[in-house]
Write a structure and sequence with these properties.
- The complex is a heterodimer.
- Chain A is α/β, with parallel strands linked by helices.
- Chain A is built from ten helices and ten strands.
- Chain A has one domain: TIM Barrel.
- Chain B is 40% helix and 15% strand.
- The chains are: A alpha/beta, B alpha/beta.
Chain lengths: 324, 326
């Protein structure tokens, strides 16, 4: 059983610890430090995120998306054909992102996350997964002035992300994850979504996963089991109905159990976590399970996120001891 | 002669630089509470003097003591505390409050500054509160079994504060619920909370809502248990007027009509504002129509705010004269 995260890790600690990245960005914006210096601090904070995930006891980590402004901008601003608009609320959270505006054909020019991935692998004691925002979510959260439909735009994003995934694969990535929360808000478009997924992973031979959060999969389950990913992650915090869905049809892929609330500071107990894993994973082989928070961790203060991860890892070990 | 087209503002003014610096020093423990309070009082004096000089009818204290409309309550309320830093966007972080325990009212939260402001003027000063739904929605909740439970508990707290303001003599109490637009499905819960807050309150109750948000919760939002809706109108070219063309606005309620765009440096012309006021008069008669800027003025410098408000007051006077009202 694998203890892991979904994507982001909080970028700065609380006072009195110094908020190095925040201070560095302020200084960079004022022209007080160079591009080189800010990249160095991003690297150091990334190392810190990798180290803290390992210390918490996770088996599989991410680079914490320390360099990402948000889940859209970091990818969108490095693709051709896109400019960035004002701030918009990200789903129903209290976080805001810059809305990508599609002004022309989207083209992939060069790897966006490959150097980040390589850096993380070099500096992590634990295996690292590569994480990308999926084409449907990117399309849904963009303003389209070029393609004329969400479907056409998503297809263009899928083409670009396929190039990125291939570059990650060439760089040695062993697991590439795509986050697609938006499809849970637009389930009627699932058929189109399934087509997108096929072009997204075309030519990808390493393991891939799809994470669906901020809701449940009712209405698209068990269809999601036909999607071309080896692992599918579900949100059992905001998607309370997912538990019943697992009973309705056997889960035939690796299962991502998002069971720690990534959007509330209330701490789950280790026993509670272990029990939750045992009841949800009943009937599945232990090595088919990835356990994680329900979404990225940037909605929480860092210290709370750390404590949640420690308990998550302990809960996984406890559940494992019983299941095996 | 009938009275009408009373002028007011939505609530906030920008903080003077000295106060902003003092707040940062206080946060780092380099300034005492008493020293900060003195600067807050000084800024409040200036804000009241400014509004009197411009000639507004209903004043505000400018929220010189508040950083954020939710954190302010989170810091003071028993049962709540400020949590660690959470990012809101880009390089911006805030201390998101946490509901740790049963929330309850213990002592006045906003009364002191309201009273200070009211003692400086003969004009009425609005009491300013954040609605229970917004406080809950913009906080972590580690205590209540459901969000509805949390909202109803918070409603009792805000209700008690509204009663305190009323007893102290507040004639207008504004209770804002900006979080509502995020989850339209929560409208019922927010309406229920507000009904608890305002039940039995004799002071005029008001809620402010921005245009985009209002459109997303229209028309259910009109059932909210307040007597006055304070609407952003100028920034959306008065589109909101079209929503009420079929007499859909509740008979017994009032509107505070936003005629000044707070997001633009450009100062409106008197004619522009007069035209805006007249759009409002298509919906309601002058005794039920109040005139104010679209939103809080904290996005503008005091110079810009002053210029804009002077134009607003001049336009109101001209329209009053045309209509023969006091």
């Amino acid at each position: 059983m694998i203890a892991t995260v979904v994507s982001s890790y909080p970028k700065i600690p609380n006072r009195p610890s110094p908020a190095r990245l925040r201070n560095a960005i302020n200084r960079f914006d004022r022209g007080a430090i160079t591009e080189e210096e800010i990249r160095r601090i991003e690297d150091e904070v990334t190392e810190e995120a990798l180290q803290q995930q390992a210390e918490a006891g996770l088996d599989l980590v991410t680079d914490g998306q320390i360099r990402w402004e948000d889940e859209q901008t970091y990818l969108a601003r490095q693709l051709n054909g896109i400019s960035l608009n004002g701030l918009t609320r990200w789903f129903d959270t209290n976080m805001y992102y810059r809305q990508p505006v599609i002004e022309g054909a989207i083209t992939w020019q060069k790897p966006i996350t490959v150097d980040d991935y390589r850096f993380a692998v070099e500096h992590s004691e634990k295996p690292v997964k590569a994480v990308l925002t999926g084409p449907y979510t990117l399309a849904r959260l963009s303003v389209d002035q070029h393609y004329g439909s969400v479907g056409a735009l998503a297809k263009a994003y899928a083409g670009a992300l396929n190039r990125e995934a291939k570059a990650l694969q060439e760089a040695g990535a062993t697991l590439i994850q795509f986050n697609e929360p938006a499809i849970l808000q637009h389930k009627r478009e699932f058929e189109q979504f399934a087509g997108l997924c096929r072009s997204l992973v075309d030519g990808i031979t390493v393991e891939t996963s799809l994470y669906l959060y901020f809701g449940d999969a009712e209405g698209i389950y068990p269809q999601i089991l036909d999607l071309p990913f080896q692992l599918i992650g579900l949100d059992f915090v905001m998607g309370a109905k997912n538990e019943a869905l697992l009973q309705s049809a056997p889960f035939t892929k690796k299962l991502g159990l998002g069971i720690i609330d990534a959007r509330n500071t209330k701490l789950e107990s280790v026993d509670e976590i272990a029990e939750r894993i045992r009841s949800l994973a009943a009937g599945l082989a232990s090595d088919q399970i990835h356990v994680s928070p329900s979404a990225g961790l940037e909605f929480l203060p860092r210290e709370v996120a750390q404590e949640k991860l420690r308990r998550l890892a302990q809960g996984v070990r406890q559940a494992e001891a019983v299941l095996v | 002669m009938t009275k009408g087209l009373l002028t007011t503002t939505v609530g906030s003014f920008s903080k003077p630089d000295a106060l902003q610096r003092a707040r940062n020093q206080y946060a780092r423990g380099k300034l005492s509470r008493e020293e900060l309070l003195e600067l807050e009082r000084e800024a409040t004096r200036d804000v009241i003097a400014l509004q009197e000089d411009i000639g507004l009818d209903i004043l505000v204290d400018g929220e010189m003591a508040r950083g954020d409309m939710v954190a302010y309550f989170g810091e003071l309320l028993p049962g709540m505390e400020l949590g660690g830093l959470v990012r809101s966007y880009g390089n911006r972080y805030y201390h998101k409050p946490i509901i740790k325990d049963d929330v309850h009212w213990q002592e006045p939260l906003t009364l002191e500054m309201w009273r200070f402001a009211q003692d400086l003027t003969d004009k009425p000063v609005k009491g300013m509160l954040t609605g229970p739904y917004t406080i809950v929605e913009w906080s972590f909740d580690e205590y209540y079994p459901s969000r509805r439970d949390a909202v109803l508990a918070m409603a009792q707290v805000i209700r008690r504060e509204a009663q305190e303001l009323e007893q102290a003599g507040a004639k207008y109490i504004q209770i804002d619920e900006p979080a509502l637009s995020t989850r339209v499905d929560d409208l019922e819960m927010a309406l229920e909370g507000m009904a608890v807050v305002t039940e039995g309150i004799k002071a005029k109750t008001i809620t402010h809502v921005c245009y985009g948000d209002f459109a997303s919760v229209y028309p259910g939002f009109l059932e909210m248990a307040v007597q006055q809706f304070d609407l952003e109108a100028a920034n959306s070219n008065y589109d909101v007027a079209d929503m009420f063309t079929n007499g859909t606005f509740p008979e017994e309620k009032e509107i505070a009509w936003g005629v000044i765009d707070v997001h633009s440096h450009v100062v409106e012309s008197v004619d522009q504002v007069k035209a805006g006021i007249k759009r409002g008069l298509e919906i309601l008669p002058p005794e039920r129509l109040y005139i104010d800027p679209d939103c809080g003025l904290k996005t503008r410098t005091w110079e810009e705010a002053t210029e804009k408000l002077r134009v607003m007051v001049e336009a109101v006077r001209a329209v009053r004269e045309e209509l023969g009202i006091e």
